[in-house]
Fold:
Amino acid sequence: MKRIVLALMLTAIASSAYAYSPRCKPEKKLSGAALTSFMKKCATDKCTAHATEKKYHGAAKASYIKKCVSDTVGH
Structure:
């Protein structure tokens, strides 16, 4: 059952229609809360870097990062 849920989560992440979709791949095998935490942190870091690249500031940057992470991780 866990594998099915993980597969569905990964499918949702991969099929995200968002323009910028960071790729996060853990170096070691993670599952459950550890995987969720890793994915969220990785996505946040990459979305933050992308927002900085696009020169967003203040509320626009925060909004972009929140949307990007939400679309990537699905939470």
